[in-house]
Write a structure and sequence with these properties.
Helix content: under 10%
Radius of gyration: 14 Å
Strand content: over 45%
Distance between the termini: 14 Å
């Protein structure tokens, strides 16, 4: 997992061939004019989902992992907390792997939490269990999916 702000994204862009394109999109897009939905930047290799969701509590947020994609999650409106647990410690599945959605859900509890303000981001690799959308009220966020 990586946590940072868009102003420091340049050093992270070197970690994956598609990260620069992903971060350029996050840095240059006026999200106040973007509706919820999917935006393809490079087909299924790189796309962004803009979502508006009701915040969850730490108790109701589920840990999830992905096998094929790296997540870059960034709140756009509202403050969001996300839980983290090493993927190897995610042992208690409540929903088995869904290949179409590239997701597995677990009832294990995070070992750490991070809180992000708008335009701060977290990068979750396939080895990172994460419990997103912990917040009070509604949040709007960008979720960038980068094919491993």
């Amino acid at each position: 997992m990586i946590v940072d702000s868009l102003t420091n994204a340049a050093s992270i862009e070197k970690l994956h061939p598609l990260f620069q394109k992903a971060f350029d999109f996050l840095k240059t897009t006026d999200f106040s004019k973007i509706e919820s939905g999917k935006i393809e930047l490079e087909g299924e290799k790189l796309f962004v989902s803009i979502v508006e969701t009701q915040g969850k509590t730490k108790e109701t947020a589920k840990l999830e992992t992905h096998n094929k994609y790296i997540d870059i999650q960034m709140p756009l409106e509202g403050i969001e907390t996300m839980g983290w647990l090493a993927g190897q410690d995610c042992k208690n599945e409540i929903e088995p792997y869904n290949e179409g959605k590239d997701i597995t859900f677990f009832i294990d509890k995070p070992s750490a939490y991070i809180t992000l303000k708008p335009y701060e981001f977290a990068v979750f690799f396939p080895e990172d269990g994460h419990a997103p959308a912990i917040a009070e009220g509604k949040i709007k966020k960008a979720i960038v999916k980068v094919l491993v």
